Amino acid sequence: MPDPKAAALNTGLAHHQAGRFDEAERIYREILASDPDCADALHLLGLIDAVRGNHQEALRRIRQAIRLSPAMAVYHSNLGRLYRETNRLREAEAAYRDATRLDPRDADAQLGLGLVLKDRGEFDEAAACFRRAVEANPGLLLAQMQLGSAMRRIGRLDEAAACYRRALEIKPAHARAHNNLGGVLRLQGQPDEAIACCRQAVQLEPGYAVAHLNLGINLLASGDLASGWPEYEWRLRLEDAPLSPRCRPLWDGSSLAGRTIMLFPEQGVGDVFHFIRYVPILRQLGAKVLVECSPGMAPILQAADLGIDQLVLPGMEPPPFDVASPLLSLPGLLETTLENTPQDVPYLQADPALVEAWREQIEGLSGFRVGIAWQGKKQYPDDRWRSIPLAQFAPLARVENVTLISLQKGDGAEQVQSVDFPIVDWTDEMDNRCGPFMDTAAIVSQLDLVVTCDSAIAHLAGALGVPVWLALSTASDWRWFRDREDSPWYPTARLFRQQSLGDWNELFERMAAALAETTGTRILPAAPQREEPATPEESPEAKPPLNTQSWLQEGPLRLKRCRYGPMLYLAGDRYIGLSLDTYGEFSQGEMELLEQVLHPGQVVLDVGANIGTHTMFFAQTVGSTGSVYAFEPQRFLFQILCGNAALSGLTNVHARQAALGRQSGTIRVPTPDYARGGNFGGVSLESQAGEEEVPLLTIDQLNLSVCHLIKVDVEGMEGDVLAGADETLRRLRPMLYLENDREARSPALIKQVMDLDYRLYWHLPPLFRPDNFFGETKNLFPNIISANMLAIPRETSQNVPLREIQSPEDRWSTPQ
After folding, report:
1. Which of 244, 339, 366, 614 is the most buried (most CB within 10 A)?
2. Other C-beta atoms within 10 Å of 390: how many?
3. In 623-759, which ranges are continuous DSSP H helix?
4. Separation between Cα atoms, residue 154 and residue 593, nearest integer Å
5. Which of 414, 395, 613 minimizes the C-alpha distance to 515?
6. How far apart are CA 84 and CA 312, in angstroms?
7. How many Å apart are CA 397 and CA 393, to the nearest integer?
8. Cis peptide before 342 (omega within 30 of 0)
9. What is the pLDDT of residues 555-611, one digit of tens each?
10. Whole-model pTM over 0.70
11. 506 contact partners, CB below 8 Å, separation of at least 6
């Protein structure tokens, strides 16, 4: 006989998939009225809540379904989708990872996890997820598209193009695949094919603004300005068009005689420098010209003799105006061609007082003075193709009698400290007096040459009429056109282009030869490279021994490079200190287990952090996008913990000298003699006879919004810590890793965790590992293990190769 509940579910699902949500909801509620624990009905009803925008109720129902049927991958996948739609990316990642662990072939879950990682900018791992989604379901169009997008972002253009072509095999009339393929072909230096793809996208979807814009960019780059300007205007129809709401009504090119026009910036600073040149032409047409600008741009525009009638800063009420225009629309509205491009330079001026202020420093430099800039804004989607590692400028430094001066501010400026050729760096003194670019303009105006990537510095130098050489990739911006060594915009510019995408070496060698010719000097030979010792891979027989010597030999502390970086430790600690000193690690078996359940971007609490052996591991595993909150009540151990985090540069560690328990207040902490031998990780806080009073906190009062793992090692007070975390554990459902080596307290602790609906597993790693970091074969800890429990929320499915704890009476020493 057919199952009536299954039949009802199928009927409800048919209504659901047809969009008849009211009828589907009625059926699901009827099923739940007779069986409140029907996970399928709860899950499907939660999906209807999500469609109607009731996300909190949807989350509640789907989480309940997971508690009832934790092995259903689709439940976890849909939970991840809901979290992502509400911008709770960490929770979304955790849910999708649960789904993919349950069913690695679930293409939708892999796709969802990839989208979360892409949203966070983790394109390499996102690409791996999209690839698994495609392998599981080659016909999943969105996965193919997303894989192509990720491959483009990480620079693997051939693979990106292949993804878009496979998408077109699935759906030949897919306008976005044609458009995206065109974008990749442009970067690969195939402009005609790129234009054809964009035209196809526009033909398939005439209102597709992005495809029109990309078509315009390709046409402009090819020099077809008449066809390109109208298509370029489609940028104003993009949903995220960066345009002031006051930019209305738009000027249509009609007469400006006796009228006032307001000009608005819309993209970067370089675009303002580039297109502000049109102000004199507008004045010639009889217009009064207002310009909206940021406070930082006001000084340099005020200094320019362009005929701007008034600058309007944010927050100011502008004077009445008749029409408005974005700056980048002016070339098309004024029918700019390659022949009539306005190129009277200079049209920006440096402040004479600042020129004088910098004159002595600049004249004090010997030889041919070359200003350099190498990095644009990292936020620009295709920045990887235009910005250049500073190290690539090395051939210019070998040109005899040339002095390089840094003009780089902000992103990339730190690279000056890592190159091995001389650069004059005044950037800390620049643009601190009169606003951005004013000092830069004063310096640039006194240089012999500027060499730069495609950034605002290029436009500033060109607008000042200073000789400027641009280093351009094969995928350069449209305004530099194609196959030209000169620029119709800037008469003093010379363009050097890559011969193949990504090859800056050849370009800078060519540029250095041109610089030597310009200066009438020679290129000096490169300094001989310091010979590095052979790596183990190059010479296995000569593998150097690991340095196990301590850098501190006196006092209570030692310092060695251990498995997770340099570690300070107490020489007299008979467990942690002795293990680090001898093996370069402590209880590494615990890290190997936790490494399997932690991922980048997660949040970990380290309660009882001691000197940070686990903290260092956690911080490196969750990465810069994750966080580790470490609590250690012993002041001296806390100070060592902070030192260890600083030695490894771990800015994602948040350390606090405090104890955690069941209620807030204070607690007295013993202060042992750390210069003597002892077990300093085994200090109990249960006695109030301690000598130092420290804060006692609860995990609940931390008000965490997300937490993935709580590790607790507090010498018998683990139950108190969990009691003070009750609300957090029920709300966030993190995994737990708990020391449980006190048999008298074990039953109560196990029951406490089981009552929170967790599954528990014994984890008993030995303190000695034969493959330890230092390769030491002597076992100083025979028959000593660390007795711990791993606790996983019951609704989370996780393959755990450990012995499960069946009841509070279970003991780690019980034979299996």
Report:
1. 614
2. 24
3. 635-647, 718-723, 726-732, 746-754
4. 31
5. 395
6. 40
7. 7
8. no
9. 889 999 999 989 999 988 989 999 999 999 999 999 999 988 888 888 999 999 999
10. no
11. 498, 499, 500
